[in-house]
Task: structure prediction
Amino acid sequence: MILKREILNIIKHFSEKKAITNKSKVPIFLICLSISLFIWLMIKMSQDYTKEIIFPISYSNPPQEQILTKSLDTVVLLKLNSRGFDLMNLTFFKRKKTININLAGKRINKNRYSLGNYILTENIKYQIRQQIDFTDKVIEILPDTLHFILEDISTKEIKVISNIEYSLKTQHQVYGDIHIYPESVIISGPPSLIDTITSVKTSKINFNELDKSVKTKVHISPPISNNNLNLSHDSVEISIPIEKFTEGVVNVPIEIKGPPERPIKLFPENAKITYLIALKDFTSFKTEMISAGIQFDSTKKWQNIKIFQQPSYIKITNIHPQSVEHLFLK
Result:
């Protein structure tokens, strides 16, 4: 009514023929109209209104040995009663804060006929009110039940696999095995996530033209990106032993395992073994440390030569010949 009366007065004023030029009427009219609208808006927005506003929610502090894996309800609708100014500011201009639902010490129910859990908003009404600026003006909270899924935390041991690429300088070789410490880690999380995980990889790392041993710490890459997964270690130590190698050649007699009832003769009777050995082990190596031969099979004329014994620190690169022929003697 106030706005209508003001506008009518303005129209009446300008309908009277006064000594004012037509050009001056329009801006004066607009100014007066704006003032009237502003006054009307101030009056209206100072009054109390009831409005439903949606707030995002998050959950924290689930029970011990449990983890929240899914939020089925992610918002609440609050019916608020407050001044128009406050409600308009909250609706259009102010970023709505996320309401945290602290589950510590709250009664959490388990669904009887479906997967998941729930909590009644009636039991957390005070907690919700304390987090908004309308503490005493919350008329209703919807929904009346918030649903989510809690799972028991499980743990298991999984293997760590290195993700390393390297190249070596001429005459250099890896001496023994590449070591990872620890070789395995403990993964913990909900069964729905960890049941299918059997190993984790390290971050990718490259070494070029290695000529000496390397020991370095490498981060572990999470098997999947999920905050509900935890690893007992976030990194491992990787050791790559490198030594300079030289080539050696030995001639050894070809042994016969499982000899036949009749005497046989092998052609040839000796094999030439080519091997690589680290310089630091060269003086300790003896020819008799290598033995080679065949596992006799009377159905085969030619039989492959196999290495029966060798030191762990050498690498066999060639056996010549690779097979031998046998003849039965009278």
